[in-house]
Amino acid sequence: MKKITVFILLVIILTGSVSAAAPLSVSAESAVLITTDGNRVVYGKNENKKLGVASTTKIMTSLLAIEYGHPNMEIVTTKEMVTVEGTSMGLKEGDTVTVKALIYGMLLQSGNDAANTTALVIADGKESFAKLMNDKAKQLGMSNTNFVNPTGLWHKEHYSTAYDMAVLGAAAVSNPAFVKICSLKSASLEYGNPPYKRTLYNHNRLLSSYDGVIGIKTGFTKNSGRCLVSAAQKDGITLICVTLNAPNDWGDHKKLLNYGFSTCEITQIEGNLTQFDVPVVGGIIPKVTVEPFRQPQYTLINGKSETVTRQVYIEPFVYAPVKTGKIVGRMDYYIGDALVESVSLVAKFDVETEYDEDLCKYESFINKIRSFLKERADLIFKK
């Protein structure tokens, strides 16, 4: 069934009541703070500068592992899988470990062995897995990123930007399975040869020192410096913060998040709860009224005045019966090219099927024939 599209420019100027904070000073070479609705920049410092990102790379590796869709699949590790330098979840050759445990090992313990094993399980090799990583990056709009390995170990051609990593972070926290793991301070898992219970600990200090933090990932190499991607929620707002090569990353993130939550607020898009009529085929009335499921809203930054555009998608018609709340379309709201809100359009009331006496008689006759043929078929089968 094709959908019709209606494009409406809303001349809505939304002005917030919050005031701008004083300019920030952070230790990071590159930093950014964005909203998760539209990936809009609240604060930026060299946010498009290409730099090494160390183990924050494992956000992408973990996200691909989750999307791989086989969390309970057991793997027996090979020498190639576990032979990698740097941090480790303690895997040895011949260990039995699940894909789910590898994700915990990457996001909590920052295990390079877990990332390396993940790459070799999902793809034919690290190069093939890097292609998957880069394909996903392009899909997300990470235009200044190139991944070479699943771990984040230093390579001159392995780089990203603070903004691109924030976009990745926003995509990651939209996945409930990812959030469940990255927000844990510790987890008990079983793996080994034979598997035995052990505890992994999250390296993210913000989980214990900043209210509302839900992750995401730390990173460090000598060449890249200290890297950190965090996410926090407050008053219905979710912000992503990234610092690259930041000597005081914990302090930077607290400062930036405080700034963001003092500068942003949730605001409703008023005055455009338009109702639409959609034709109903076979209904007791010819059309049904549809309306937004809820009041649209988005994160307003720093009291900016912004023009919002709305694109409406509606089914050209629906078949009776129609139940109240049936989804028949949606309204998408944009600031520039950034999608900041999407609200379903739902039926406002029930529409019953029109009663047609001749049609009912015909359907009754057809049903009798079907029942007779089924009975004959059953008898033949029994014989």
Commentary on this structure:
- With 383 residues, the protein is of the alpha+beta class.
- The chain folds into 3 domains: 4-12 and 269-347, D-Ala-D-Ala carboxypeptidase, C-terminal domain (Peptidoglycan synthesis regulatory factor (PBP3), Domain 2), CATH 2.60.410.10; 27-247, Beta-lactamase; 357-383.
- Helix content is 30%, strand content 32%.
- The chain contains 10 helices and 18 strands.
- It has helices at residues 58-68, 79-82, 99-107, 112-122, 126-140, 162-173, 176-182, 206-209, 249-263, 357-382, and strands at 4-14, 30-35, 41-45, 74-76, 96-98, 186-192, 195-201, 213-221, 225-234, 237-244, 264-268, 276-281, 287-292, 297-301, 306-314, 318-319, 327-335, 338-347.
- The strands form 5 sheets. Strands 1-15-17-18-13-12-16 form a 7-stranded mixed sheet, with no helix packed on it. The protein has a 5-stranded antiparallel sheet with strand order 3-2-10-9-8, sandwiched between helices.
- A hairpin with a 2-residue loop joins strand 6 and strand 7.
- Helix 1 (58-68) packs antiparallel against helix 3 and helix 3 runs antiparallel to helix 4.
- It is globular.
- The two termini are 45 Å apart.
- Mean pLDDT is 88; it is low at 1-22 and 379-383.
